[in-house]
Structure formats: C-alpha cells, structure tokens
Specification:
The chain folds into two domains: 2-227, P-loop containing nucleotide triphosphate hydrolases (Rossmann fold, 3-Layer(aba) Sandwich); 240-305, OB fold (Dihydrolipoamide Acetyltransferase, E2P) (Beta Barrel), CATH 2.40.50.140. The protein has eight helices and 17 strands. The protein has helices at residues 44-52, 98-103, 111-124, 140-153, 170-186, 198-201, 222-227, 232-235; strands spanning 2-9, 21-28, 33-37, 59-64, 67-68, 83-86, 158-162, 190-194, 207-212, 215-220, 241-244, 247-250, 254-257, 262-271, 276-281, 286-291, 300-305. Helix 3 (111-124) packs across helix 4 (140-153). It starts with a strand and ends with a strand. The chain binds adenosine-5'-diphosphate and magnesium ion.
C-alpha cells in the first residue's frame, strides 16, 4: 500500500514562508480510489508531484509497499515502474499517431500482444476512431485521453491523476469517466485523483481527502462526509447548503410545510432540470431550498428541516 507519513513541504527552500503542505498523513490500499479535493491553490497538484517523487520532502516519508519514494536529490531518474502520473499539462509526442504514443513504452518483442494491449486501451479511453491520427491534430480533450491511455499501457500498481477530465467536454465526460474508473477498479490499480469536479468523486471514490489551509481536514468515504460534512467547504461538494443555527443544512433538506418557525419570502427561482433551486429571504438571511415547481416571487412559504437519510 501507499504510506504518506507526516510530510511537510515548502517550495521555498529557505523555509521562511509557511509550507504548502503540512503534516499530511494517509494511506492508500491496493485498488483503492482516493479523491483529493480542495480549492484552487490548496496543494492538490503539489501532493501528487510529491508522491511521484518530483520534489524533495522537507520532512516525512512516502512508501509504496517497501519502496521509499525519493526526490531528485536521492533519485536521479524521476518515476517508478509501479507508479504512473498524468499531469495537468501532459506531454505527448505530437508527430506520431495516437496508437504509437500509447504503445511507446511497450516492448516490440511481442507485436501481437502489443497490438491487443493498445486496442484495449483505445477502448478504455474511447479513442478507437483516432488510432491512426497524429497527436498534434487532436483537441485538448483527446490529447488528455491519449495521456491517460499511455499511463495505463504498462499496467501500473498505482496511478496519480491530476484533474484527468478537465479538458473533456460534458457530452463525453460521464461515459469516459465510468470507463476509466471502472477499468482501474477491475484491474485493481490504486488511484489518487486530484479534482474539483464532484462528479469525479461521487459514485467512484472510496475516500475523499479534503485539503485546506496546508492540512487534511477530512479523510473519509463520500457517504460519511455527505452525512456529516463538518465544514462548509466539504458540504459545498455535495450541493447547495445553508448554515442554520450554525448547522449545515442542504437545500434539499428543506421542505415546504403549512406552518413552521422558518418563514421565507421567495426571491428567485433557478431551473435545475428535475427541480427548482429557490432563493428565499428571511428578515436577515438568505435560505436556499428545492421545490418541484417554481414559486411566485415575493410569496411567503414555511420550511421544515428534514433529517438526512
Ligand atoms: P492546486 O493543484 O490545489 O491548485 P498547487 O499544488 O498547484 O494547488 O499549488 C499549491 C500552492 O503552491 C499554491 O500557492 C501555488 O502558488 C504554489 N506553487 C505551485 N507550484 C509552485 C512552484 N513550482 N513554485 C512555487 N510555488 C508553487
Ligand atoms: Mg492543480
């Protein structure tokens, strides 16, 4: 398994400023799917790069099974056979085809096996129709998929993915995400996915690590964090919410009733597809709730808080 033991890291080698990451400690089991979430600049990419051995740690240590991951000071060639990393900015060979890029590091000694393997990976990233296309003519999203397939070519034991679907449009994202994440589970490849897209997490991650202010503020299953988000930052991942008497109450937990202590005037209806998100105003607060239909502006309604199931 992966062990990240109490690491501290600062880009600033004089160590005058505060570290980017401080006291980061967690483990990842073989085949486990971990999401790392946090605001932009919270250190998600830095954490993946540290796990890959791109930088020297200020303190702490990282192990995959019995191998210590060492930074450039102790390890001249960054990277290990058992671990692959797909960066936010991927570098491919532009003048060769998609299938040549994917098979780049596969041995030519068994051409039939190589061909089958490349074909399998083209299917995982849904690029069968582009096998013979030169990479330089692809869109950003297509390149991102080639980078994913290439990282999987020599099956790693763990893969680090930095915002892996960020360049891919919404039409294709859902199906590609299922294809890639299901493939990783099926092959028992552990993955750590840095993301700010909740769709990357919900339905896929075994655990969510929430980074905030240089530290891990939560590391639990999405189910547990949904029920008990503790922090607004975590709750915001699961949808619109309110702070009512210092408690986090999701918009869908509020239901219109005949009468209650919580009276709001309807201010705005936001169409969301199968429901409306409604902004209501109390004397001194704004409350968001959900309803099947739009409500008359300025009408008064009473809301009841439902317990989370
Ligand atoms: P995220 O991926 O969560 O957006 P990053 O890991 O990219 O966050 O960045 C974390 C912090 O480290 C930010 O404040 C960023 O400005 C800083 N940072 C990132 N890369 C470097 C670098 N190469 N040199 C100095 N500071 C950096
Ligand atoms: Mg990043």
């Amino acid at each position: 398994m992966l062990k990240v033991n109490n690491i501290i890291f600062s880009y600033d080698k004089e160590d005058v400023g505060p570290p980017v990451l401080n006291g980061i400690d967690f483990t990842v089991e073989p085949g486990e799917h971990i999401s790392v979430i946090g605001e932009s600049g919270s250190g998600k990419s830095t954490l993946l790069k540290l796990i890959y051995g791109e930088f020297d740690l200020t303190e702490g240590e990282i192990f995959w099974k019995d191998t210590e991951i060492l930074g450039p000071k102790y390890n001249l060639v960054v990277g290990y056979e058992f671990m692959k990393y797909v960066a936010q900015e991927f570098d491919l060979m532009p003048y060769i085809t998609v299938e040549e890029n994917i098979g780049k590091h596969l041995s030519n000694f068994f051409p039939e096996e190589k061909k089958e393997r490349v074909q399998e990976l083209l299917e995982v990233v849904e690029l069968q129709d582009f096998a013979k296309t030169k990479v330089k003519t692809l869109s950003g999203g297509q390149k991102q998929r080639v980078a994913l397939a290439r990282a999987l070519a020599k099956q790693p034991e763990i893969i680090l993915l930095d915002e892996p679907f960020s360049h891919i449009d919404n039409f294709q994202k859902q199906s590609l995400r299922r294809s890639v994440f299901n493939y990783l589970k099926y092959k028992n490849i552990a993955c750590i996915v840095a993301t700010h897209d909740r769709e990357d997490v919900l339905g896929h991650a075994d655990k969510m690590i929430v980074l905030h202010d240089t530290r891990i503020i939560a590391n639990k299953s999405p189910q547990e964090l949904y029920k008990n988000p503790e922090m607004p930052l975590t709750a915001s991942f699961f949808g619109e919410f309110n702070l009512i008497n210092d408690e986090i109450i999701y918009a869908h937990q509020l239901q219109i009733v005949e009468e209650s202590d919580l009276k709001v005037a309807v201010h705005h209806n936001y169409f969301k597809g199968h429901y409306y998100l409604i902004e209501g105003h109390t004397e001194d607060d704004i409350i968001f709730f959900e309803n099947q239909t739009a409500l008359q502006k300025n009408s008064k309604v009473y809301l009841k808080i439902l317990i989370l199931q």
